[in-house]
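pipeline/complex-builder :: batch 7 item 3
reading input block
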Amino acid sequence: MTTSADTIEMRPAPVLKPQRKFSWAWLGLVPFFLFAILFIFLPSISLFVGSFQNKAGEFTFQNILDLARPPIPQAYWLSIRISAVTAIGGGLLGMLVAYAVTIGGMPRFMRSGTMTFSGVASNFAGVPLAFAFISTLGRTGFITVLLKNFAGWNIYDSGFNLYSFAGLSLTYLYFQFPLMILIMAPSLDGLKREWREAADNLGATPQQYWRLVGLPILMPSLLGGMILLFGNAFGAYATAYALTGGSLNLVTIQIGAQIRGDVLNNPGLGYAMALGMVVVMAISITLYTWLQRRSERWLR
Amino acid sequence: MSAALEATKIERAPAPAAPLQPGRTRRTFAPFSWLWWTIGMLYLGLPLYGTFVFSLQKTRGTLSFAAYTSALSEPLFLRTFLFSNIMAFSTIIVSLMLVVPTAYWVQLRAPKWRPAVEFISLMPFVIPAIVLVFGLIKTYSRPLQLLGITIIPPLTNSTMTTNVLLVAAYTVLSLPYMYRSVDNGLRAMDVRTLTEAAQSLGAGWPTILFRVIFPNLRSALLSGSLLTFAIVVGELTLASFLNRPAFGPYLALIGNHQTYEPAALAIVTFGLTWLAMILINVATGGKKGATVTGVR
């Protein structure tokens, strides 16, 4: 009986009545807050302030306005496109695989293996991942050679290039969709059997069940997961740098170039770019958190 | 009993929920599931296979581990790998010292501060590594002054202080994972009752922390530490912009100069990540799918 265990474990312990009106409890959190101020807030604030200063240190909106000048909008657009493509593609594939190993009727033992593999793969990013894809889909890569020798198809002749939008998307997918598997599996587990049975008893076809019951319930976590993947790809630097050596005009690559040597010729504009990035990330994380809460209404 | 159940409902935060019986379909052959599972696993498996085969081809005509012996015996590899391990170890220590007392205190004495602490622990998700390092360099490449008085000298001027900055930055990156691990661990036991029981038996704070709380947190601490290790060891962005001789920048460097060694090291790195995940699975009894974002 699980409820009794829960009762013991989760009963709200009697609240220690504070002796004084004023509590000194926050003092125990000072080291943590101090650390956060020094290494999270100060750097962020200094970037924020820097985005509103010109070279002489005076207040200006010019940097923000200059974000509209090439190559910056192009960089944001490319980053957004690559994040969106890998978020949607990775989200769908991740969802389908998660379905397969949770409620899709595959043998139970395959689930834990798949989940562990997904955990590893979603952590396998950066330079090693770039190497893996170069060894696989590069000009002399394993699959490239295989296709050339056995199918007579040279993918590089037909326009494919690993060091391009398509190639980077395929590489990002490697850590994107396993992350989605990990996000979706608990939600799919949360679909109650009773709902399926009720739908069956009322004469619903499987398609009707998914269209009218399953998917609407899963929608918040599906969207939330995709948004998380979006942010995951949007902030990626190491993989893109190792794969393309900075030839793709992504926001992270631009910021990296700016740190190395003020390529924009205006430090303030670099800070504004970083600020724009934080804004996009903040929006996606907020949306994710909100959708996650919504999905918990049904799935707990 | 019913009152207690009501209370349970209210208190029941994201604590480890009782495993729900999923709406499993009857055990029939499911071609749709198998199809998508196969596609997914091929996607994950083929690049690994390709990399592995590629890494064996250093000696022309035969398959051998020559690339591995040559990559692993390279002095620069050993030096950078050691450096990254020291950084990872330092980060784990700093992160534990920062997060465990904080999470414990929030749980026990300062629950009002929980939203603030949780918010801060999620901040690193909003600040990508490249932006973090940008801000850190801007802030700490000059003296940090408060009311005209220098409180922190420029940190990027010497090797030692840059290392300190790097560990601090890694601690920031690891914060969400460490905090979540420790917080889950604390929620899974009844901190207050354990603390009060220990107190009423005459235990002092050191005894409570080291002999009651920590042993109960063992698996949470281990999984948080291993995740931190997985983040730090191959990390490129922070190490390369702070100009430290870490493993990530070294990997990127040999990627430009050598052919088979990078593939070999990619396989080794994958093996290390795999090992860390297996250990986390063992430590947490396979309850948590551990995952990292933010070091892409």
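note: Chain B touches chain A through 116 residues (CB under 8 Å).
queue -> next item
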